[in-house]
Amino acid sequence: MTVITRFAPSPTGQLHVGNVRTALHNWMWARKHGGRFLLRIDDTDRDRSREEYVDAIRADLAWLGLDVDGEARQSARFELYEREFEALKAAGRVYACYETPEELDIRRKILLSRGLPPVYERKPADAPVPDGVAPHWRFRLDHDAPIVWTDMVRGDQSFDPKSMSDPVVRRADGSWLYLLPSVIDDIDMGISHVVRGEDHVSNTAAQIQMFAALGAAPPAFAHEALLVGTEGKLSKRLGSLGMAALREQGIEAAALVALLARLGTSDPVEPVTDPAPLVAAIDFAHFGRAPARFDEAELALVNQKIVHQLDHAAVADRLPAAIDAARWQAIRPNLTTVAEAADWVAVFDGPFAPPPAAEEDRAVLAAGAAAASGIDDWSADPWHALTSAVKEATGAKGRALFLPLRRALTGRDHGPDMAELLPLIARDRVVERLSV
Ligand code: GLU
Fold first, then answer.
1. DSSP readout, 179-218?
2. How many C-beta atoms lie closer than 10 Å to residue 130's C-beta?
3. Which residues line ligand 1 (CB under 6 A)?
4. Counting atoms of ligand 1 from 1, which one is nearest the CA of 42?
5. Which of 5, 68, 219, 311 would bridge 26 by S-S if both were Cys, CB 3.0 to 4.6 A apart?
6. How far apart are the C-alpha atoms of 336 and 255, rounded to whole Å?
7. Among 131-135, 157-161, 216-220, which is the least confidently predicted range?
8. Alpha-carbon separation of residue 10 from 13, 46, 75, 133, 200 (angstroms)
């Protein structure tokens, strides 16, 4: 069997960590099995869908490295939906309904007040049809047997169709609801595995009957537990967890991939820059049923570990020209984001004013300036030459020796290994910064 998965966003907003996670798992599953990963733009809702979001979705998937093997748009497939709809109508599996939302609401309330489940009640076949009212359409669930499937995450699932309302599949204005077009597409595109959030579980029960009604075997399903934020529901914060906002904060695509690949699974999060080992290891049996907790602090930490591994070539186009490979190598272990590299340009090349020197550090700094002027080969470990000379001249050692020099040369108390940093700052600048 060829594995074919799809990511099916509605282009009504930006991708956020929640739906990126779904996209990622679909992509990983397809790649693991040498299959295909398709992008399906669910744009049947013409009022809410926006072309700019379609572009942003494509760009975000590309940024994340989730290459797609094909793209389809539901808005271009209405003819197919119409054909299948007519076939289901002819077979009696979809039927016209005339209730107004108010009527349905009253029915619901009556049922609830009697302690009954608010399941839609079908009208008898000979019920009068109101004049001049355009119908909406429901799919007739088959009540004969329970709906069962073995979910790759949730295990055995069973739904009693009698406890479910016949789902509305088409509105009175002819527009489509999500359920039926999705099944028609999954059949037409040969989707083998549907990976999506557990908020779709009850849709799946209805959709499994739609597959059968359309003469197709259903795909395999994996419904993953939803993401929650550290303070509960993620949905309120999704704006700030969009890809554009995260990119802005300096989050690397690889960090998102590494974290979201494993969040909510029994496998540890590994800060890898290449997703290959994650792809090889994905297994829906390792996914938990409990909501997965998304923590921005954890993302920042994974991000930092990723940044520390990135080669100069991988980030050169985002670095100031002054940060060449050697300078990147020197500062990389001290960065939390790639953008912070820009803060180091002034340390290397100026303009830079050393912080005012403390009285007790003056001797060390002056000796440092003298020592630096005397070092002819600045490329050969000048830091050790400089510190030995200062130690000899002043008797300073340890922190009293190193800290004043680091401060005067970088303006900070902590930072990269000075032995690595010093040859990358011109000698004259060093002399100037140490001259007090
Ligand atoms: N457009 C649907 C959604 O975003 C797709 C669900 C599915 O994967 O079938 O919820």
1. HHHHHHHHHHTT--EEEEEGGGHHHHHHHHHHHHHTT---
2. 10
3. 8-10, 42, 178, 182, 196, 200
4. 1
5. 5
6. 12
7. 131-135
8. 8, 10, 11, 30, 14
CA of 362 to the centre of ligand 1 (A): 67
pLDDT digit string (tens) for 192-242? 999 999 999 999 999 999 999 999 999 999 999 999 988 777 766 667 789
CA-CA distance, 258 to 263, in Å (whole number)?
9
For ligand 1, atom 3, the nearest C-alpha belongs to: 9
Residue 231, classified by CB atoms within 10 Å of its CB into exposed (0-12), middle (13-18) or buried (19+), is: exposed
**Spatial separation of the C-alpha atoms in residues 136 and 128, rounded to whole Å:** 15
How far apart are alpha carbons 155 and 285 in whole angstroms?
Answer: 9
Give the pair of three-digit tokens for residue 196: 């999506």
Ligand 1 nearest-atom number relative to CA 22: 8
C-alpha–C-alpha distance, residues 267 and 279, integer Å: 12
Please give the model's pTM, rounded to 2 decimal places. Answer: 0.93
Q: Ligand 1: distance of its center to the CA of 136 in Å? A: 22
Q: How far is the CA of 114 from the centre of ligand 1 (A)?
A: 34
Neighbours of 255 (CB within 10 A): 26
Spell out the domains of the chain, with CATH numbers in brackets. 4-71+179-228 (3.40.50.620), 79-170 (3.90.800.10), 229-307 (1.10.1160.10), 312-348 (no CATH), 352-434 (1.10.10.350)
**Residue at 398: amino acid letter:** G
Residue in 5, 21, 27, 42 to alter for ligand 1 test, most ligand atoms within 8 A of Cβ: 42
- List the residue whose alpha carbon is closest to atom 10 of ligand 1: 9
Report the nearest-CA residue for atom 4 of ligand 1.
Answer: 9
User: To test ligand 1's pocket by mutation, which of 10, 20, 180, 235 has the most ligand atoms within 8 angstroms of CB?
Assistant: 10
| 366-380 confidence digits (pLDDT tens) | 999 999 999 999 999
